[in-house]
Protein 1
Amino acid sequence: MTGYDAASRKENVLLVHWHDLGRHLELYGASGAHCPNLERLAAEGVLLTGAHATAPLCSPSRGSLLTGRYPHSNGVVGLAHHGWEYREGVRTLPQILGANGWKSALFGMQHESAVPGRLGYDDYDVTDSDCDYVVDRAEEWLKATAQTRDSGDHTPFLLNTGFFEVHRPYSPDRYPVPDPNGFDVPDYLPDTAEVRGDLAAFHGSIEVADIATGRLLEALDASGFAEDTWVVFFTDHGEAFPGAKSTLYDRGTGISFIVRPPRSRSIAPVRYEGLFSGVDLVPTLLELLGVEVPDEVEGVSHADVLSGADRETVVRDAVFTQKNYHDSYDPIRAIRTVDYSFIENFASRSALELPLDIADSPSGRALGGSHLGPRSAKELYDLRSDPGEVNNLAGDPAYAAVQNELENRLHEWQEKLGDTVTSDAEGSAIAAEFMHRYQATLGDKEAVPRSPKGRDRQLKTPETRATG
């Protein structure tokens, strides 16, 4: 435990999450992706550089972050708007905290259920996930909650704020487009005018989301809750560019992750290089808040790291990731350590299976047919010399011992946690069944929001905030 007497003062939690960001921020070395408000947040807290989603897709990754269980365990192995749901009895973070005296609210994006009322929040508004709308609603809620606090109600809270940004499309009517020649193109993408234009539009959406995040943090300060609130910023998976989102490479599962402790704790900021999995968020927060971690939670707590009690002990020596269903069935499993990554592809597919929004993007079209070659059944990368995971060493006799060890560990993890991979034919049939089931429910008023309504909303810059 952290040594902090959580029982004497229950703390709050503010979750801030963006969509499809990966680690594409200047904080993590991405050229041109300006994020001054996130930089200030990181300067006051813990910047995690080794955080990974359990899956490179929206619903499965978010399901793990909010339950502490892997996708195959909690049931959300595919997209919620395709019909995937939590299994009966799976408890979410708001449900666990609610049973221990916390109230909760959700504003904006969630991607775990087509019926958000099932998720356990006391209050929610998912009608619009545009970042400015989300911050407006959260600011109203914080003001109202501060008034009840001032009247003597000190019930702690979980406030979950989900931005649609920085998901495609990057509308120039909503997001400013910076100079496409003012940054370096990531190594995994071709350096063409089309790709540069696509990245510039992406950077514009990052700018808008960062400004909104700054507004939200200001609202937390104005409410007086920053003294006793854990602020957790994260994204769901890699950026929506070919070779990132929907893959189990570092740029597919690697996620931005910042945690700022309550100011009253006076914890020194740090850049934490250790591995962290999406399933670790729930047990970490519960321990920090003094709440017992349920037995079904599969993650491990990093509470001592975040509290500053112990930043030397290695909490994790590996993370496990998986892909099952996105636009189609594509079963993949992986294990990643600090030095190596091993990926096993269980079905014959192209080298890159592009999600529809990426395939139809300027960057996707820029690939031509270069991504359509056959995919290797097994992939092994030496991250010390090849962090971009380009040179597949699977089958190389010089790395046979490493491959055997990682492959065995991956299979042992699957067996221990009951992760089975169905055949290609069976998995594809299941995907079709879920899609059919979802199509039958279209029209439900509580559907997962696919895009925000406020695309024509004026950008709220520091100069325009006061006028609306």
Note: The first strand starts at residue 12 and ends at 18.
Protein 2
Amino acid sequence: MANRRNLKKRINGICFELAAECISARLYGSVSQEDVNNIMGNIFSMQTDCICRISHVEPGMKAKVFFRKLREDMQKRIDEIIEQISGLG
């Protein structure tokens, strides 16, 4: 298992890439600023939620199970955000 610092860096990198994709959709398409702001809010709330969960592991839960659940939840949210971005164009 990777250490927490590396996990946080990876989460920040993923969120940066999603935000960049969202901004490029705004710049190169006819997308409303309100839609972009909503998606950016979703991205940053996912980032904050995941990083907080990494910092505060649930007591009584095995680390392997906790981080597997975190990864699954994050993947679901990433897929939702990607669908929102692809729906902009």
Note: Residues 4-86 form one domain.
Protein 3
Amino acid sequence: MAFAQFERPKPPKPMSDINITPLVDVMLVLVVILIMTAPLLASSLKLALPQTNAATPETPPGQTQTPPLMLSLDAQGVLYLNQKIIEDGALAVQLTQAAQEDPETELRLRADAAVPYGRVVVVLGLAQKAGLSRIGFVTEPAQSPSKGAGSKIH
């Protein structure tokens, strides 16, 4: 009786290259998610800004200036300087320091529509006393006339 030996097939050589296709797919998905969420993170403080038909100001071409200070005032009267809570006394110090570094620094005030006018005036007084004269009010575009027809100033 003769027994035949069968030759075993050679196992495939180990693959030494890394397949980066799944890595690229994951990275592209993360980039798309980042692109979509970045505008939402610009201002995490939710305010009901007043509405107006005023045009948005533009910086003249060729003019370089320091980035504006973003001052927010929520409905409870709490101040936020560049998205961080700040007290009135510390705000005065920060604004004075900014005015000393560059007197042309712009202060952009985002005040909730429910904030009493007196509180806004106090904040404006702090900015003026600190030496800042370029103060802008951030608003939202007005709704169509059919929605806001009942709100006219006399």
Note: Confidence is low (pLDDT under 50) at residues 147-154.
Protein 4
Amino acid sequence: MRKSTDVKDYIRTIVDFPHEGILFRDVTTLFADPRGFRMAIDQMLHPYAGVRIDKVVGLEARGFILGGAIAHQLSVGFVPIRKKGKLPGTTISEEYQLEYGEAIVEIHDDAIQPGEKILVVDDLLATGGTAEAGIKLVERLGGEILSCTFIIDLPDLGGRKRLEALGINVDVLCEFEGL
């Protein structure tokens, strides 16, 4: 078992995954270590001590793991934003651009009530496309985004700047240079 006070030490890098030239930042090693996972959740929660949050929204898929744990600690509801076709019931959707095409995410149309204070959670911020689509869905339902929180930021891909240009506060635990 690792003993570190830096979340970054619990994240492994896999070279050339899923494509050649990519350095994949794998948080499953962080999730698998009880000390590392607890530390990450505690650090993600820290900026929001004393802040009213009504619901935590997790972006598919690793955002579900983090968001569920954070919602539990805050004693608030958890709302998943999923890929198109994965949620039962009535949904609203948002299309966004990927590096190699486009994708669509959805949320239940009754998951957020107007005026609710929302914390958006995911593991990694790259280009910011998925997070921006999630923000738009929450806002269409009348939710107020308090902040987005991530374990990892890849600053070279510009996601943080993209979200901040929308007026969104962004918190991250660590950064990795490159793709």
Note: Residues 96 and 130 are 7 Å apart (CA to CA).
